[in-house]
Specification:
The complex is a heterodimer of chains A (115) and B (113). In chain A, the strands form 2 sheets. In chain A, strands 2, 4, 5, 9, 10 and 11 form a 6-stranded mixed sheet that branches. A 5-stranded antiparallel sheet of chain A has the order 1-3-8-7-6, with no helix packed on it. With 115 residues, chain A is mostly beta strands. In chain A, a hairpin with a 2-residue loop joins β6 and β7. Chain B has 113 residues and is mostly beta strands. Chain B is built from no helices and 11 strands. In chain B, strands 2, 4, 5, 6, 9, 10 and 11 form a 7-stranded mixed sheet that branches. Chain B has a 4-stranded antiparallel sheet with strand order 1-3-8-7, with no helix packed on it. The radius of gyration of chain B is 13 Å and the shape is globular. At the A-B interface, β4 and β5 of A face β5, β6, β9 and β10 of B.
Chain lengths: 115, 113
Amino acid sequence: KNQVEQSPQSLIILEGKNCTLQCNYTVSPFSNLRWYKQDTGRGPVSLTIMTFSENTKSNGRYTATLDADTKQSSLHITASQLSDSASYICVVSARNGGSQGNLIFGKGTKLSVKP
Amino acid sequence: DAGVTQSPTHLIKTRGQQVTLRCSPKSGHDTVSWYQQALGQGPQFIFQYYEEEERQRGNFPDRFSGHQFPNYSSELNVNALLLGDSALYLCASSLEVGNSPLHFGNGTRLTVT
C-alpha cells in the first residue's frame, strides 16, 4: 500500500535554531517528492519538488534531501524564524504523468517556533 | 496575477443539507483538484477535473460531485451532509503535466451541525 509517514508529529524549537523533519515513503513507482508548508487556516504552499535523480534542493532557508534507495526525505530548516511556525507536509507522486490523483499526502509535522 | 480563490471561506450547514463550494484556478492553469482535510490530517484527494471532465476520483462516495466550467473554474457539491463531512475543503490548480506543482487556495471551512 502506498503510504507516506512523517516524523515527528509535532516539534517545538527556539527561534534561531535549526531543525530537521523526516518523511519515509512506500510509494511505487516513484515519480517525485514534494514538501509543502501550510500555515494555520491557509492552503499549502509548495517549497520544493524533487525527482528521482535529485538528492538535494534548496529554497532559501529550507533544504530538502532525498534518498530514493532508502525511500527517505528530510526537510532542514536553518536559523528558524517565528514565521516558520506551520505544518510541513510531505507529498509523494506515485506515477509520472498528467494525473495529480496519484499524490499521496503525509499527515504533516506541526512546527512551533518560540521566541 | 491572482492565485487560486475559493468561496465561501466559511460555511455552516445542517446534517442532510446540500452544499456547493466554488473555486477559480490560478491564471493559466487548466486542471483543478479538490481535497478534503480533516483537522490534524493531510489532505485527502476527492477528484480532479480537466477539460470539463472528471478525470480521476479518490475514495469518496457519490454524494460528492463536481463540475468544471469552460473558464476552468470548478464547483464541489456535497449532498446529504453528514457530521463527518466537517472539514477544510481545498481546491488546487495546476497545469496538466506530471511534475507541475499544485497551487492551493486557502480553502472553505465547512462545519456540519
